[in-house]
Design goal:
Number of strands: 8
Order of helices and strands: EHHEHEHHHHHEEHHHHHEHEE
Largest sheet: 8 strands, mixed
CATH class of the largest domain: Alpha Beta
Oligomer: single chain
Number of helices: 14
Distance between the termini: 20 Å
Structural class: alpha/beta
Helix content: 25-40%
CATH topology of the largest domain: Rossmann fold
Strand content: 5-15%
Length: about 400
């Protein structure tokens, strides 16, 4: 790999007036969210108005929101079905706050019962009864902003810890729920929180409207991107793929998927499509053209022969996605990734990606190295790399056309 250019940068400092949650970006929590400053930087430096951007690991939809703020178009794909309602809400252009008067009349409200068999494990019966009525009303009169408020409410009054991405019971949250149940009117607690959430979601939506410039945003969830083939050309691909072994987004959103009507079988099927849990037979084989990949393969194999299978599945899957979609990219491909650990071993993802993609017809332009200034870490975790990912890299390559 010749003339590999790396430049240090702080994307947050490039756009000091933008917070990571400005407009509708912070409408709903999503773990390991793609920060908007990175997307904005790439858009302004390498694209023009009217261009089409593709994000095959769309996550919370950052690329879609930034595309409409800068008058570009975006196709956002993800395995997680939540991308569709999430982006619909994040790019909604409200004329007024949603009418929620019907949610105050619960006596004769319709009832929606999730199909997920474990739903009762995560809610006290008193709270579940109220939530089933709120969701019953929603399904009779759906609204994209109300849906996000219901997600927030359903998460808050569950036994799932609010501070951990995975659905996880903690002593702290159990104590909070017990305190709520002892309140004078626990039903009112839920309704008050729901109404507050509607106001906050509407505020974020209204703020997005002030930034909106134009364009089209298409969101498609439930996509097996490892086997996906694009049927059209797009100008650019920009994405932040899952890092190493950290692919548990379906597990993190089981409650939301349950309220969207997904049953056990559907949720399990989605979980099995996440890269670490996939069967090798479901991953199209490719030849990885990277000496760096081979070197770290040998290092990991010596330390942990079982772990090397995860390493191989990860790079075969992700590079396979870039290889197949790359033939449909006319201009630039940008990958934002950190050197996540494989049991204490930190392979340089940016170099492995670049080496392989250069062999597939892309020209490396530059890699921007950003030092992480804010990270959500959790106590009592015995990580092999306790400080986490310290830098992230925006790898920019150009299609040779």
């Amino acid at each position: 790999m010749k003339n590999y250019r790396r430049v240090e940068i702080s994307f947050r400092d490039v756009y000091p007036a933008l917070s990571t949650t400005y407009a509708s970006h912070g409408m709903y929590y999503y773990p390991a969210r793609f920060i908007p400053q990175v997307v904005r930087f790439f858009i302004e430096k390498y694209t023009k108005e009217g261009d089409w951007l593709l994000d095959p690991f769309a996550g919370s939809g950052t690329v879609g929101v930034e595309a409409l703020i800068t008058n570009r178009n975006a196709l956002c794909l993800d395995l997680n079905p939540i991308i569709e309602p999430l982006l619909e809400a994040k790019t909604y252009l409200p004329k007024s706050p949603p009418d929620i008067s019907q949610y105050r009349q619960l006596n004769n409200a319709p009832i929606f019962k999730p199909k997920w068999s474990r739903i009762e494990e995560w809610y006290p019966p008193e709270f579940l009864e109220v939530l089933e009525k709120l969701w019953g009303i929603y399904y009779e009169n759906p609204h994209p902003l109300t849906l996000i408020a219901l997600f927030k409410t359903s998460r808050r009054f569950s036994l799932a810890d609010d501070q951990v991405p995975k659905i996880f019971r903690s002593k702290k949250k159990r104590i909070e729920i017990e305190k709520m149940l002892k309140s004078e009117n626990p039903y009112k607690l839920i309704l008050d929180f729901f109404e507050k959430s509607v106001r906050n979601v509407y505020k974020a939506s209204a703020e997005f409207k002030t930034y909106y410039k134009g364009g089209t945003c298409i969101a498609r969830g439930h996509i097996d991107i490892v086997n996906y083939k694009l049927d059209r050309e797009v100008n650019h691909l920009i994405t932040s793929p899952p890092y190493g072994m950290a692919h548990e987004y379906i597990r993190s959103f089981k409650l939301e998927l349950a309220w969207l009507g997904y049953d056990d079988k559907q949720i399990r099927k989605l979980s099995k499509l996440e890269i670490p849990y996939r069967h090798e037979k479901t991953i199209p084989p490719i030849e990885i053209h990277s000496k760096t990949y081979e070197r770290y393969y040998n290092i990991i194999e010596k330390k942990n022969p079982k772990l090397v299978r995860v390493y191989e599945k990860y790079f075969t899957s992700v590079l396979g996605v870039f290889e197949r979609l790359g033939s449909r990219i006319t201009d630039y491909l940008a990958i934002f990734v950190g050197n996540a650990s494989f049991s204490g071993i930190d392979p340089p993802y940016d170099i492995i990606f670049t080496e392989h993609l250069e062999e597939e017809g892309f020209e490396h332009v530059i890699t921007y190295v950003d030092v992480i200034k804010s990270r959500k870490l959790f106590r009592n975790r015995k990580n092999a790399s306790p400080s986490g990912i310290e830098t992230e890299h925006l790898v920019v390559l150009k299609a040779k056309r």
